[in-house]
């Protein structure tokens, strides 16, 4: 500021207006500039690369993996705070589908969100995406073995074809496995005859959360919340085109499966975890 204003005013006048002593200004001017340490450069690079989606715990592990730099999480957190690199997400929103119950399955999952092998337990849910010119509905199926998104569909409606098409895509991508527990809430599309018939014909096992209890399907609901808060963190409702919304959803799904590390998976990505088990 002094450099910019001194063409018009004296240094003394500028410092007086800023209430800064001349000695302080000249001492600061004479001091050598502080260069960033290698750790700071690496942390800044990682935060920029991950679009500020990670907190200090994940950055700590990436720092070790990518740069072979070992710092405790408090040191990483201090550097991130110093450079204003904290995780930037919006408050998370919750949504629960509702509808008339037709066929209700028992809650076989019982909040046990662990699986020792792929294709043992899938969880599925629908969420709304309100960032385009019209509301879209996202149906997702996740494998609890490595939290990988097996299939997803983004439609302009939340009718039964949305969930049946998602399930068909998941079966196709995994080679039509049998005996998989497919857990959902008690939304009308999941309790419909068409969906339950597809479950039965595909030799799968239906499981449902208790009515009004979002914690019974917390993992996939948390994923949908993360998608909105991470990918759409700076996007206002109804502010972009529908095509752009679809593009951003596709980008996040690829990022989540292939790049986003998870503490539950030993700080590996879902694809890395799946490859290790293969």
Question: Number of helix segments?
Answer: 11
- Counting DSSP E segments of at least 2 residues, the number of strands comes to 5
Q: What's the end-to-end separation, in Å?
A: 60 Å
Order the strands across the largest sheet as they lie in space: 3-2-1-4-5
Radius of gyration, in Å, reads: 25 Å
Structural class: alpha/beta
What order do the SSEs take from the amino end to the carboxyl end, as H and E?
Answer: HHHHHHEEEHEHEHHH
Helix content range of the residues, please? 40-55%
Shape: elongated
Poorly predicted ranges (pLDDT <50, ≥5 residues)?
94-101
The largest sheet, given as strand count, sense and whether it forms a barrel, is: 5 strands, mixed
Q: What share of residues are in beta strands?
A: 5-15%
Q: What number is the mean pLDDT?
A: 90
Record the SSE blueprint:
Elements: H1 2-5, H2 11-18, H3 22-30, H4 38-49, H5 56-67, H6 73-82, E1 121-129, E2 136-143, E3 148-155, H7 160-173, E4 181-184, H8 193-201, E5 205-208, H9 218-231, H10 242-258, H11 270-277
Parallel strand pairs: 1-4, 4-5
Antiparallel strand pairs: 1-2, 2-3
Helix pairs in contact: 4-5, 5-6
Short description:
With 278 residues, this protein is α/β, with parallel strands linked by helices. It is built from eleven helices and five strands.
Please explain how this structure is put together.
The structure is a single chain. This protein is α/β, with parallel strands linked by helices and 278 residues long. Helices cover 42% and strands 12% of the residues. The chain has eleven helices and five strands. The chain has a five-stranded mixed sheet with strand order 3-2-1-4-5, sandwiched between helices. Helix 8 links the parallel strand 4 and strand 5. Helix 4 packs across helix 5 and helix 5 packs across helix 6. It is elongated. It starts with a helix and ends with a helix.
